Amino acid sequence: MYALKGLVAGLGILIVIGMSTIGYGLYRKSNDPGFKFFSLGGDSATSATPSTPTGSPAIIPPLADAPPLPAQGFGETMVGLPAGCTIDGVSGDGGRIFLRIGPNTPQCQRVLVLNAATGAQIGVIRIAR
After folding, report:
1. What pLDDT score was predicted for residue 81?
2. pLDDT, tens digit, 9 for 90 and up, residues 13-39
3. Where are the domains of the chain?
4. Whether the Cβ atoms of residue 97 and residue 116 lie closer than 8 Å to each other
5. What is the pLDDT of residue 50?
6. Which residues contact 52 (CB under 8 A, 6 or more apart)?
7. Could you tell me where the DSSP H helices lie in the chain?
8. Read out DSSP for 48-90?
9. Rg of the chain's alpha carbons, rounded to an integer?
10. At 19, phi and psi to the nearest 5?
């Protein structure tokens, strides 16, 4: 009987420790979106960025409410556009730059998404009709 009570008490303590760890992780993540308990090797910031060639469809993950990145120079970046297409507008969210490509024709109508810190192309959003 005492062994069973000890087992139940021990498992209860493990549950309290686990819930405390989850609460601490949620608190730290709310203050620092880049917080991770463990690093699984390598630089995940560069390997997690999807890279697609121009012209292939891309699925863009939802935007996180991350603080703006510090301004850093990345040199010169070349962005290829189909013949007859121009940049109609530029906007950004702190971590990404969005280039709206026009005119309003099927071959030109798209949005290019660039990484603001590196200038690398993250993806292309095509407008299907």
Report:
1. 79
2. 999 999 999 999 899 888 887 888 777
3. 1-37, 50-59+74-129
4. yes
5. 45
6. 58, 121, 122, 123, 124
7. 2-31, 44-47
8. SS----TTS---PPPPP-PPPPPP-----------TT-EEEEE
9. 23
10. -65, -35
Q: Please identify every stretch of the chain with a pLDDT value under 50, giving residue numbers as ranges.
A: 44-58
- Looking at the chain, how many residues does it have? 129
**Amino acid identity, residue 74?**
F
Q: State the residue for tokens 């690093």.
A: 39
Other C-beta atoms lying within 10 Å of the C-beta of residue 124: 19
Q: Contact 124/58 with Cβ under 8 angstroms?
A: yes
Task: Evaluate whether 128 touches 110 at the Cβ level (below 8 Å).
Answer: no
Tokens of 111: 């949005």
Q: Give 56's DSSP letter.
A: S
**What's residue 3's pLDDT?**
94
User: What is the reported pTM?
Assistant: 0.41
